[in-house]
Amino acid sequence: MHLAYPPRKSSTAGKYMPRQKMPRISRNKKTAIIIGSILVFFWWLLFSGSKRTSVHPSASKGVAEHFPTGKPSVVMVTVLDTSFPKEYTDSIKQNREEYANMHGYGTLISKVGDYDLHGSPFSWSKVVAMRHAMAKYPDAKWIWYLDQDGFIMDPKTRLHDLISDKALEQAMIKDQPVVPPDSIIKTFTHLKGQEVELVLTQDKDGISVGSFAVRNGEWAKFMLDTWYDPMYRSYNFQKAEIHAMEHILQWHPTLLSKLAVIPQKLINAYQTEKDGDQFQDGDFVLRLTGCTKGDGEKSCDREGGRIAQKWRTAFKNA
User: Fold this and answer.
1) Alpha-carbon gap, residue 165 to 196, rounded angstroms
2) Cβ(146)–Cβ(286) under 8 Å?
3) In DSSP terms, which residues pair with 151 in a beta bridge?
4) Residues 6+ apart with CB under 8 A from 175
5) CA nearest 203: which of 254, 155, 265?
6) What is the DSSP string of 150-201?
7) Which CATH number does the domain housing residue 183 bear?
């Protein structure tokens, strides 16, 4: 059964309603009302002002921003594919841990499969691992990702020296196409070292994310969350997260404005020159790009074993 709506009341006075007179207010009452209103206003102003000064500026957003203290100065992140020979992955882990212990850095070494990527290629694990490192080391200054095909060859070189504000000021390549050689989107020309939040290198194909660093903080969280957006992960980029990074840097000025591209050999030298700058003795990092799981000439196990002898000797003599 439907109930009838109550009759709508008219918004205007009826034609035959008697006119009512407004009560007259004496002069003394008017003065009292004015003074009372002024007192109430000043009381409210004083009370609300004291509340505003006692609350953290970010509390209005519901979340207080955390400012890292810089301890440790660097956290090293690597994701290991355990389908590779154990001797090879153990060598990579040892390389990271010995270097980190030498300089007081933190480490986060995870494995492929540790994170639920919701069907995305395993190469996206690096992005989740970086966010994991930020949560584990909230006071770290820099988070450095180095792929499992990379070895630290010069233990005396400290990463935080290479990417200090002063060092970045001198090393960053300005007015550089983001995707060389033809990209019309270029790195900023007036960027200062202290403004840099993301440090990348390029190879002959474009942006390289096999060795890169991000300054820990709210901007880094925003960048990593943007990069890991389901839209980019589901899009059929030929090189998955690499091409996704190139896309967001060219289409999002908020990200491009904090990018420093530095010479590849500083943190990302390759074994051969066909793909980028070739490693030479004395360089900081060597990456075995293109090495395979098998037993052939290009197997990571074979090449990694040869390289392991060199880095262990360098660490012993450091």
Assistant:
1) 8
2) no
3) 286
4) 186, 187, 189
5) 265
6) EEE--TT--HHHHTSHHHHHHH--TT-BSSTTT-S-B--SS--GGG--EEEE
7) 3.90.550.10
C-alpha distances out from residue 24 to 20, 27, 300, Å: 12, 10, 97
pTM beyond 0.85, yes or no:
no
- What is 293-318 written as a DSSP string? SSSSTTBHHHHHHHHHHHHHHHHHH-
Element (H, E) at 206: strand 206-215
| Total tally of structural domains belonging to the chain | 1
Strands 74-80 vs 106-111: parallel, antiparallel or unpaired: parallel
Which pLDDT tens digits describe the chain residue by residue (318 residues)? 443 433 333 333 333 334 444 445 555 655 655 665 565 555 544 444 433 333 333 333 455 677 888 889 999 999 999 999 999 999 999 999 999 999 999 999 999 999 999 999 999 999 999 999 999 999 999 999 999 999 999 999 999 999 999 999 999 999 999 999 889 999 999 999 999 999 999 999 999 999 999 999 999 999 999 999 999 999 989 999 999 999 999 999 999 999 999 999 999 999 988 878 899 999 999 999 988 888 888 899 999 999 999 999 999 999
| Residue 122 one-letter amino acid | F
Query: Does any domain span residue 45?
Result: no
The answer to whether residue 7 is domain-embedded is no
Q: Encoding tokens for residue 74? A: 């660097």
Is residue 266 a contact partner of residue 201, using CB atoms and an 8 Å limit? yes
Please enumerate in sequence order all residues whose Cβ is within 8 A of that of 173, keeping only pairs 6 or more positions apart, or say none: 187, 261, 262, 263
In a domain, 23, yes or no: no
Residue 214 belongs to what domain range? 74-317
Residue 5 lies in a domain: no
Q: Are 306 and 153 in contact (CB under 8 A)?
A: no
